[in-house]
Amino acid sequence: xxxxxxxxxxxxxxxxxxxxxxxxxxxxxxxxERVKTLTSRSASESPFGDRVEVEPLAxxxxxxxxxxxxxxxxxxxxxxxxxxxxxxxFDSAVANSRTLIDAxxxxxxxxxxxxxxxxxxxxxxxxxxxxxxxxxDAVTGSGxxxxxxxxxxxxxxxxxxxxxxxWAARRFxxxxxxxxxxxxxxxxxxxxxxxxxxxxxxxxxNLLVDAVGPETFTFEKLVQLVAERVGARTKTLRFRPAAALxxxxxxxxxxxxxxxxxxxxxxxxxxxxxxxxxxxGQTRLSDWLQENAETLGRRYASEIRRxxxxxxxxx
Length: 315
Known about the structure:
Rossmann fold; 2 domains; two-stranded parallel ribbon; 11 helices; 13 strands
C-alpha cells in the first residue's frame, strides 16, 4: 500500500549515516516517511541507498543550510561531538548547533526533536554536559515547537563504548575501573531512543523526556556482565581515576584513538548517566548482550575514524 500524502511529510535528520541518527532515519523509513539527512559525508556512504536524500551539513553557509531545511516538517538533531580534537571543540559544536537551529527557524520547520544527554546543565563543571544544556536552551528559546530527548548510556548496533569494553575484555587480563566502580549507569537501547524521538516528533506539545532503559547497574557490574556474556576471563581491578585514565591512554596510543576522557570518567563517577525518571526504553541490556555476544567486541570501534574525519558526529 502506498503511503498517504500526509505520511510523506519531510523529516530531516542530522547525521543519518552515524549512530543515533541512523536509527532515527531507519525508524522513519519503516513508517513510510520521507527522510533527508544533513551530513558531511558523501551520499556513497549511505546505508539506505537512495531512500534518504542527502545534503551538506553546511555550518559555514547558513543560507544554504536554511535552504536545505525548506519544506521540512520536523528536524531530528543528533549532531554533537564526544570530545575536542583539533579545530573541533565543544564551543564550536554549540555554535554550529545554534546556526542549525536558526536555519530551521528561517526555513519554517514546524518542530525540532533534539537528542541531548541526561543531567545536562548550564551549571555543570563538565564542558560536555554544559554544552549540551546550552544547545537545549537554544532549542527551547527558538520559537519552534520542540522536544528534547535525554538518553543515558546508549547501546546497540553501531555502539562504540560497549563494543570497546568487550574488545578490551577479550584481549587483556584485567579491565581498569576508575574509583569504586559503584556509580550507576542505566543503559538504553539505541532503537528505543529512536522510537522515543520519532514519537516525540509526532506530537505538538513541548516535551522533555529522559530515554532510560529498564535495568540499572554499577559501572563495575556492567563491565563484568559484558565480559561474562562474551566469554572473556578478564578481571576488573579498581584504580584511582588518574591511573585508570593513564592506562586508557596507553591503549589509545595502540589503537590511535581517544579511548576514554577525563570528563567521561567524571561524568560516570558523578552519576550523570542515571535518571530517576520512569523507564521509557523497553530493551534489556542483559538480553541484548546475550543475543549479540558472538560479534560484540570482535573489532575495535574507533571514535576518531568514525566521527572526526567530518563534522558528522553522533549524539
